[in-house]
Specification:
Elements (H helix, E strand, L loop, with lengths): L3 E10 L3 E4 L12 E4 L3 E10 L3 E12 L2 E13 L2 E7 L3 E2 L8 E10 L5 E12 L66
Parallel strand pairs: 3-10
Antiparallel strand pairs: 1-2, 1-4, 4-7, 4-8, 5-6, 5-9, 9-10
Amino acid sequence: MTGFELLDLSLHTEELGRLEVPRSDRPVEAEPIVVPEGTVISVGLTFRLDREVDGLAFEESLVMDGKVLATTRTVLGGFRTGGPYEVRLPPERLPVGRAHCGVYTVTGRFTDGDGRDLAEKGYRMRLEHRPSPRPGPHPGSRPAVPPHPAAPRPGSPPPASPRPAPPSGARDAVPGWGDPAAPADPAAPPAPAA
């Protein structure tokens, strides 16, 4: 008896959310999980322990057409009896390109600090090619709109803002209106006489 019980193995992505790995004793017969190329995936593990385990490690092997392409080993650390424990592995980006697309068999294996096998879980994953986006405007962008005929052209000075005419009879009473010698700002000092 290993004292280790794997409760859940899942894949987490930003685009697709949580992808549950099917519970099957024969992963070769199970339907593969479909994931687009270039997807960033983080493996989620949930397990329970009947005994204390030091140096718990998770080793994942990626196989395509009978050839082992990659093996990664992550040391999870020491765990006390109990659980359930939830662990999320660091995210990894799947490869991009048609040559990498196809069905992979993934095997996850748990070992203790002495190298003894505690549990093993396998699943299949289909990496699908993502068609490149068609050339065109960026999604959410608006088509270019020609400037309004009355709008100034870029680089031209801004139009002068017209000053409203004062009420009749008040032109002489309001400094700066109608009297070119009067200062425009009542707080400004008067212009020297010529």
